[in-house]
Structures are given as structure tokens and as C-alpha cells.
Amino acid sequence: MTGAIACVAGYRFFRLLLAVYGFIFGALIASSVMGISNTAGMVAAALAGGVVGALVMFVAWFVGVALVGAGLGALLAHLAWGQFATGDPPAVTVIVVSVLGAVLSMALQRYVVIIGTAFGGAWTMIVGLVNLMAARAGAKAAGDDVWILYPLTPDPSQRWMPIAWLVLGVAGTLFQLRSGGSVRKKKR
User: Fold this and answer.
1) Is there a contact between 77 and 93 (Cβ–Cβ < 8 Å)?
2) pTM for this one?
3) pLDDT value at position 60?
4) 142, exposed or middle or buried, with CB in 10 Å at 0-12, 13-18, 19+?
């Protein structure tokens, strides 16, 4: 659901989306320090980390803008690398592309927020759809690894995913640009 909201209204709800994704990332990071056999500890750490992550991202939204650019850079690096080679791209490549994405995002904030939320939301919708279809078929799309939450590289047998991502991302971007973001200027 947040993927669809981000795709078509990400600029309008950017701070709220940052809080939601901040909660998710904070929960992931905090729960990863607990042992997998300590369920209560993992839940408590996830809740505490989620609240901290949400507050940090909501208050420091400009950092969120940079992180959106960095995240888009990392996503593009993984997708481009997956088209030409197997496995993950070298860490240096991902870091350099992420830093370039963060710098560019600060210079072009409004457009980066619109493009970043449209494409990020589109990818979230597609991954959710793939996992929903796999769940209905009785399989796990991400495999048996409990630590894989959000795949950046699509399954090679799912060659439609990058195309669908591009189509949905462009549609979401155009919709947000046409809606005028959060404030429309009045004509006199």
C-alpha cells in the first residue's frame, strides 16, 4: 500500500513516507543485533529501533532527500549490473553511485523526491506483487533466508520486472509532476 502511495503522491506525503520507511529500516537494523532465538528481544529491539528510525527520518527530512538519491543510485547500480553480469556489483561501484545520487538529490530536491518516490514506490509495488503471487502459490519469492527483506536484483526468470518498474515509475513521476506536488500556484 505504501508503494502505491509513494508512486503517485510521494512528494505530497514525503515526510510521512520517510517516517514509515524510517521505522522499517530502524526496526531492521535494531532487530539484527539480537539473536534469532530471542523472539521477545527481537520484537522489542525492532519496535524501539523502528520508533527511533521514524523520528530521525521525519525530523531530518533533508537527510532523507539525500538518502533517497543514494538509494536510487544503489538501486540503479544493482539493476544495471544485473543486466550485464551475475552477482552483486563491487562495493566501490555502489558507494560511488550512491554518493553521486545523494549529491545530485540535494541540488534537485523537488524533482528527486518526485522521481525517487515514484520509482521507489513502483519497485515496492512490484516486489509486493511478486511476493503476493508467490504466497498464493505456496512458495517464497525471496527464498528461505530470513534476512532477505527487499531484493534489489530481480530473479532472472522475472525479466518483466525492470520493464514494469520503468513503466510504473514514469507513470508515477508524470502523475506527480502534473498534480503540482503539494502546493499548486494560483493564477491571478
Assistant:
1) yes
2) 0.65
3) 79
4) middle
